[in-house]
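Two quick folds needed for the group meeting slides. Do the first one here.
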Amino acid sequence: MHSYLRSVGFSNIDSREELEQILGMVMAQPTDKYVTSEKKNVIAAELDKEFAERIGISVRGEYDEKGFFHLEHYYPYFTGQVVSIREEVAINKRVDTDAYTGMCDDFRIGVSLIFYLQNVIDYIDCNGKNRWNNRWNNRIVPVILSGLSTEGKVLLGNKKNSNININIATDTKQRTQLLAEAKKGNQEAIDSLTIDDIDLYAMVSRRVRNEDIYSIVESSFIPYGSESDNYTVLANILEVKKVQNFYTKEYIYNLMIECNDIVFEICINEVDLVGNPEPGMRFKGNIWLQGLVTFIE
């Protein structure tokens, strides 16, 4: 049973029979249906059913020659609305299941960003028609990120004035440029980044003696656990929306957050969030990162 079902409002599924009943509803009455011919006489399909606004469960499988659908994979999803990044994206198939992940480098984070690919059928369709190959992997495309969380806390925000915001934006831009140069092998950029990291470590070590760590670190984006697309985030809350799963009647928070200058949305079950989220406060928790890649010609 998928551990992130509770994020989309299914926290009380206790048996395989209940899960199969819900999956049967998804296959019988999908909100959206995506199909493509991947192999001869085989049609790959993905069926999505919304149980709240942009929140639901997706099943993926194949239709055989007789028109019967064979379920291979299912997952809960939350579809974002904001383009979070524009980068080169590499798509890779997972070895343990019929799923794909996207990977890209975003200098604002400093590590490779890996996310679960939501629109697999679009990728299969483009890949089968040779419209997404090595040449396309080097092309910058828009990516809409979103996240599902099973645990989180609301923290107080950091108060900043406009001058501090301007300085932070300038420093971020300079660091991004240095990271881009360092990736190309520029030794001066590498040395400059090393010195900056030493200075930053010294500053944090000095301040942490008298201050709480969350008053020093405004946001963070850190890989979490053994799964490549799981992260621990500390992010500023920009917008808050509360929706209800029409099937289970459970309430879900939809949070628009900003983390390391990257804006995306996450959803979390009301019972799994400690605190009352409001714009200006911060969210701290573990998320499963998902993404929609715009496959364009």
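Then this one, please, same format:
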Amino acid sequence: MHEWKKWPIKQQDKLFYRGEWNEELFKKTLVVVGSRRMTRYGREMVAKFMPDFVANEFTIISGFMYGVDTEAHRQCIEMGGKTIAVLGSGLNYLTTIDNDGLYTKILESGGLVISEYEPEFKATVWTFPQRNKIVARLATEGILVVEAGLKSGSLITARLGKEMNKAVYALPGPINSISSEGCNWLIKTGAAKIVTEIGDIIGGVVKQDKLFEIDLTNEENIIYQLLKAEPMTVDEIAKTMDRTVVDISSLITTMSMKNLVNEEMGKVYLAA
């Protein structure tokens, strides 16, 4: 038996739900949606903004699908926040079994899993666009599109939000990335406000997450600053710093242990 099935199903405002229905959850909500084919950029952007969203006591709402939705739910919980998942199926039917554990974590952290469909209802092609109406309606502070293709369901959510007079925001992305075409189009056409920092959404006084300080050696700091500009290979870092590959590899290993960097496909990136 799935752990989340131990939570009873209840009804409120014509919605089925699991969890503890608390009106406070709905007072300050931000919808975070995006591509199911999330890129490294999308994951890093969720990681960039989520600490401040939680610090400013937003309830994060998303659609519980793999990709940006799942990342938004997961990171919100990890940062100590509360999140609401809106399903495109009944509460007893998961469209992606990989989210089985996440379902339970949402409930245990004080969040909600909700659906307009009967508990045993299986998702269909039309239920996800239909689900987006609820997602958009629940937004009080706006809808943020992290990544989206031109035919993405996230654009449907954005359009529905505009029709409901909700604020719509989008993160700009690389112009050669199909995963950002939808976001860039929203910004270009004026359908969404461009977001590069949390102040673009909140305005006024912004509570920022207090990140712990990490002591860096002089050489580690140089590497850190280099990687802030762009990912690099170990060879490129060694050449830039006029050090041996062995020396740089050792430094990268140490920085990796501090969760400052990671390596992927031959390049070193700052950790999200």
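Slide caption for protein two: Residues 218-270 form a domain with the Arc Repressor Mutant, subunit A fold (CATH 1.10.10.10).
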